[in-house]
Amino acid sequence: MNGMKTMQPRRSRRFDSLEQEAFLGVWRTYDRLRAFEDELFGRHDLTPQQYNALRLLRGAHPEKIHTLDLARRLISRAPDITRLLDKLQERGLIERDRPADNRRVVRIGITDAGLALLRDLHEPLQECHARQLGHLSQRRLKELIAIMEEARLPHEE
User: How open is the CA angle 146-149-150, to the nearest 5 degrees?
Assistant: First the structure.
């Protein structure tokens, strides 16, 4: 070798930055964990966004929520909230009304059928969450929640 160092080929970096690696890790994790919910909700002809809307409406029940308030509270943005609500109403899971004094306002409430569907989903969804994250200790889950909240905080509306 004549005292010369052999040059190792440079390994290409998988990520441009730690931020990119963290973001792609969150995205990949979301993709893997979401598959469990997609399978469960698919059996009930629901999307995760529709489930989230029903859950929020149950929280307000027996009151009704204005459409824009519901849209703001959804976990992920619903670009077409009207279509999402149309599908839930077609199935009899929600009801809408327009106050006589302001026909531009639409209020949404969950129906008995919507409440029954959420009751039916409760146990299977608990089992789904256990399959998704049940391998983590309570301490690690709390750490994960805190880290995600800290990462999200500057970007919340």
Answer: 85
Write the pLDDT tens digit of every residue in 26-78.
999 999 999 999 999 999 999 999 999 999 999 999 999 999 899 999 988 77
Q: Structure pTM?
A: 0.82
Q: Where does 31-155 sit in CATH, by number?
A: 1.10.10.10
